[in-house]
Amino acid sequence: MSRKHFVCQGAVCRCIFGSIPDKLLVKTQTLLYINDEGERKLAATTQELGQTFEKNSFGSCSKKNGKTCTVSVSSWKDYKTNQKIEENNSALLLENSKAECPIGGSGCISIIFHGQVTDVYSFHFVKSDETILQQLMPLNDINEIINDTEDWVE
């Protein structure tokens, strides 16, 4: 079984009945941050209910004959069950979590991007293949990057 990413502020979600995706906003907890050195990306939980998206719309809704969607999440399923967030008595959402909407029904809203991004630092270059790095970044002096980091990388 492969590992699933936790979902965070800015995750992109879509509804199978909508025409465009929307970004998830974390509004229910303020203590648990993930991915970005704990500065901006709050972890999403099962308490992200109601209108918890940037635009609160997935565009036109085929269930409403093309009328504008108004998102209202009523519950989540397929989340991390063995850990609880004490601040709001909830569980963490995973990239395969699905939400229910009163119009679309159970599991109609899915997460298409979990929101986490990889930060690359110069110490990542130390154990990388120098030939490949030179091909990926032909205008950079790879040796200079590696030498600058060797002083503080073990």
Description:
- With 154 residues, the protein is mainly β.
- Helices cover 10% and strands 17% of the residues.
- It is built from 2 helices and 7 strands; from the N terminus they run E-E-E-E-E-E-E-H-H.
- The strands form 2 sheets. Strands 2-1-7-6-5 form a 5-stranded antiparallel β-sheet, with no helix packed on it.
- Strand 3 and strand 4 form a beta hairpin.
- The protein is elongated.
- The chain starts with 11 loop residues before the first strand and ends in a 5-residue tail after the last helix.
- The model has no long low-confidence stretch (mean pLDDT 85).
Q: End-to-end distance, in Å?
A: 32 Å
| Sheet having the most strands | 5 strands, antiparallel
Indicate the structural class.
mainly beta
In total, the number of domains comes to 2
- Percent strand: 15-25%
Q: Which stretches are poorly predicted, pLDDT < 50 over at least 5 residues?
A: none
Q: Helix fraction?
A: under 10%
- Per DSSP, the total helix count is 2
SSE string: EEEEEEEHH
Number of strands: 7
**Principal-axes shape call:** elongated
Average residue-wise pLDDT: 85
Radius of gyration: 20 Å
Q: What order do the strands of the largest sheet run in, or round the barrel if closed?
A: 2-1-7-6-5
